[in-house]
Amino acid sequence: MLTSLDVKQNASGEKKSKYFSLPNLLSFLRLILVAPIVLTILNRNLFAAAFLVIISFCTDVADGRLARFLKLTSEFGRLIDFTADRVNLVALLGSLFVVGMFPWWGLILIVSREIVMVTYNLYLIKRGLKFTPPTAYGKATFVIFFAMELSFILNVYPVNFAFLAIAFILMPLSLAKSLNLFFKNIEEG
Asked: What is the pTM of this model?
């Protein structure tokens, strides 16, 4: 049951749930797509997997833009988007690893970065502080992750390893910028 804290009134007086806005539904769709993406990879139906990854990426691009355009941004929206990104990335790369299409060392490094990011954002939430917003480096890293995922799914060698190398260059930069925002959040909090 939704409480009055879970519902906002828009300019026309219409009540809307902050949880079930269109941008948040796109993020939920991205979470739901994780299972079919993993199954298609495990069954080596790679073109279907690539198609689903493209749909997932489109929802990732659309949710934030739509939230800003419709003035429906919220901490909950940022949390569900952040969660969908991490679950999608780790599950997809994990399933590629399981079928022998992604290197174990790449998976370990990427998952380690994601654990750090999840940990410090959970810390902020627990302290009642604002979620760390994505940085330009973070957004660039996720675009590279998308291209890398597609290139590994479609086995486009050596392009897949080139994207992995670019991701490894961007990952510490995005993590450093994000950690800088994390510490600023704590100081201001």
From this structure: 0.87
